[in-house]
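COMPLEX REQUEST
Ligand: guanosine-5'-triphosphate
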Amino acid sequence: MILQKYKIVFGGTIGAGKTEAIKSLSEVDVVSTEAINTDEQAHSKVLTTVGIDYGEILLEDDVVIGLYGTPGQDRFDFIWPVICKGAIGAVILIDHSRKGALDDLKFYYDSFSEYVSNIIVGITHVDEDSSQLLKKYRDWMAIQNCIMPVFAVDARKRNDVLLMVESLIARAEIEHG
Ligand SMILES: Nc1nc2c(ncn2[C@@H]2O[C@H](COP(=O)(O)OP(=O)(O)OP(=O)(O)O)[C@@H](O)[C@H]2O)c(=O)[nH]1
Ligand SMILES: [Mg+2]
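STATUS: Structure written out below.
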């Protein structure tokens, strides 16, 4: 049986839950590249990704999806195109509890849409701040005339992350025939 391997990238804000999402979903031990966070202004969390996270999920028909996590900090933005090369799609995770979450979405969407066309958005940390929920993100997309699925997700919950990945794959299948 031939194992086919595809790549999905997780991008988005520092602390949004990219590493956590891959850990929630992966069926193999995740290789992560986390280091002590020295940029407390960006986020108060202890560890931050400084390279590439890697996990895997096996779909039906022996299709392996490689799950690649990017560093959220834009000082590492030179790695983003490298990680996105050959990806069938990208999940952009945005931390809803941060001030300026919508600007974050604009920034990460603009960056990642240069490298990959199939993008879906996951809004995380909505349990910490449930005001307005997804309206502002959908309004922004309508103004941009860009139609992307937007999900409210908790990166700690496997089913939330799986739903996003499945919808990304379905979109890739439509895109590539
Ligand atoms: N309350 C809550 N916590 C979450 C959610 N999603 C992720 N987290 C937590 O947020 C923290 C940061 O998650 P990470 O996965 O390290 O974030 P990251 O996007 O990889 O961040 P960088 O690598 O620094 O860019 C972890 O403690 C997660 O468990 C969520 O929806 N709600
Ligand atoms: Mg990370």
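REMARKS: The mean pLDDT is 90. The two ends are 22 Å apart (CA to CA).
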